[in-house]
What we know:
D-inositol 3-phosphate glycosyltransferase
Amino acid sequence: MALSCKKQSTSCETMMFICDEWKSTNGGLSTFNKYFAVNMAKYCRDISVFCYVSQADEEDIEDAKRNGVTLLKAENLPDNPTPFECLKIPPKDLQNPDVVVAHGRKFGKIAHVIVPKGSCCWVQILHVFYPDLAKYKPGSSKDYPNKHKAEIELCEKADAVLTVGGSLRRKYKKFLPERELRAITPGILEDWPLYVPSQERFSHVSQGEVFHVLMFGRAKPNDRKLKGYDIAAKAVVSLGERFHLKFVGSQQNKQESLENWFQINADIQKEQLTVYEYTARDNLRNMLQKADLFVLPSREDGFGMAALEALSTGTPMLVSKKSGIAHALKKLKNGKDCIVSKSESGEWARRIREISNQQPAERYNNARRLRQEYGETYSWKKQCQEIANRVEGVVESKGDNKENVSGSLVNTGTSTQSVAAKRKLTSNIPIEREEPRPKFGRQSTNS
């Protein structure tokens, strides 16, 4: 039976995230979506959290359920439309949630279609800054201005706007001067457990042992320069045979083609390079544990979720100054030690060598301290509860506006959604309320 969202209360009871997948095989955006949804369910227990996706299997549904999230799969449409087209039809089981959360231009367009006017709160999340991407993606100079314009227009239509990290907030503020932009900096990924190397591993380290540098991410041709893969490869080449680069992210059966790209663009030979297809997350965790160093050499990066995965496991890492996560790290006492200030292979080589000269125990102790400091500074709990408070203010405001226009609420009956969709959870984690509740939406032009 469909779950009605027409209820007496104007509080925020249901929140629906829109994304293409749950298991985050595409990294970045879908990874952030999953962890944001999971942590909203964990720390805001009076909100029922749903995720509406275009593809899902039973494993996805069960995994989401274990994490307090109800997964809703879109119905397949005939004629093989685009993967996202089916999401424009609201799910039968939740046609009018209190809050809809959409990511970027692709999913923002879907939210614009399915969000009933004036009936629920639309939260738009920004992940990239198109003017930055246009500098390094081939053939994008004509296309990206239109994408950037569409992104801005969607934000203007949304009820609230979030950016992933403070760096994007600063960049978008000049384009959305009358909007209150809030940054959410993703916290530690708790299901990526901290790796503590055994003394046995350290005892076998010799001076001439190969130093393994790990890098992973999207590897489509127009992403490679933007992600700085050539920078890291050139750095490894200049350091000599004792250094080896492992890259995870090749498309299926495309490893040889990607190896050739590395050889042409960085003059790196097979003796110093191993390319893997993008792999399951459990395998990625194992590779992070075996690596001596993770690198994120992006020329531009909205945030850099791959680096957060490395940080969560306690893997030593270096990240580009141009990444959003660097903006978060530089505010930490020990964060600057892992930020590389220049997008030059020579500087990356110097910093990689510095790390390799440290004792393994020192490297991992530094990484562990950084993980702890990051987790204390960027708390999922605090950020999710603050967002819930602010979004609830918007929901109540919209509910009041609707009541003023119609003279009564849409439905004075009992809410089947609040009964049927409400999760029966026993946690006593409170939601911190701010008095008076701040409004999370449009700013006054006088502010």
